[in-house]
Amino acid sequence: MPEFRETTLSNGLRIAAEIDDRGYSAAYGYFVRAGARDEVDCEAGLSHFLEHMMFKGTARRSATDVNRELDELGGQSNAYTSEEQTVYYATVLPKFQDRIVDLLTDMLSPTLDEDEFATERQVILEEIAKYEDQPPFGAFERAMEVHFGPRGLGRRVLGTAESIRTMEASIMRDYFNRRYRPENIVLAASGNIDFDGLVAQVEQLTQSWAERPTTPPPATDPSDLVPVGISLETRIAIPDAQQAYFVGITPGPSSTSTDRYAARVLGSIMGDEGGSRLFWELIDSGRAEVATLWPHEFIDAGAWFTYMVCAPEDANSNRRLMEEVIQRTVASGIKPEELQQTISKATAGSIMQSERPSNRLFGIGSRWLTCQEYLSTDETLDCLRGITVEDVEQAAKKYLTTSGTDIIAAAETDSAVT
Fold first, then answer.
1. Alpha-carbon distance 109 to 103, whole Å?
2. Which of 44, 21, 25, 47 is nearest to 34 (CA)?
3. pTM here?
4. For the segment 219-256, what is each residue's pLDDT rounded down to a tens digit?
């Protein structure tokens, strides 16, 4: 059976590992409490920008060295940024533990070279432009901005073209020194891990992290002004769009809420791609290409998303039908067989995912970073199996009856889409 071990180093860095000597691989990841919600206007998009810069060289390695070594180890590696954290991770064979830990740890002391900064700025501007050209054309970001406000949880992870163009390397350095402190970071590991060796190595490699200079917090943003480059309009006009895109957002459970498992089950019953209520009513019938809903959890809040894609001429009738399905669920509840089928599918998925250390890594690291809590696969399965019909029906009444924001992305000529 897997064993969970954790410790806090002398500099404040936390290490959390789920160890299973039966595994054929090992996954490692640095989870940093640095996300879009931690930024101010002049830093918008900086957490993600900084993620890119971590691959651009250190005092010990050039950018070429970093990428070459990642390839030499033959595993999988990447990074991502969200509203609440930035994560750098890799999965390798257990014999490469020392090498991958040395590399990942070194990457978290980047040089932040001015030339690399200027080059990567253009890469990110291209990423923003590409994203805005892809359906649903920023509708999810707009929903978050309107629902939570354009700052905090509502701030765009990529930032805006305006914020990236005016970003300065000095601001990035200050942000790095403020957020990338050892007490603000968790090193998570899963699979066939030498925990004692990991702790000893990281203790030695990160001694200097506590010496990073402290920087004062930036000035508070003016609450009466919308950040440059942000619009709070609920309609996004897309030239030549062939379909209409709808994103709805209402409050949902947080990652610490006792409702979160029931809400996830409700989302599956209502919006799963392979046989949910919305699937049969709207997708299988050919009325819509996409019709789904789900909860998204944050540390201290949550969001409930609805999403539909269809032909513009069918948009209004489909939205009414979608609302009818939702209200029918609130009024009449769910069937026991629906619950059992969903729980069986969820538990099977959890068990199969738990066989891969790389899948377990993210839950372990994120949970330890945000909640200082570990949930084993068995504990997660117990939570799922303990959900009742009444739990799901209460979640429906709580989360499917609140008013929220609807964002429409459609061609300017589709004036009938309202």
1. 10
2. 47
3. 0.95
4. 999 988 999 999 999 999 998 889 999 999 999 999 99
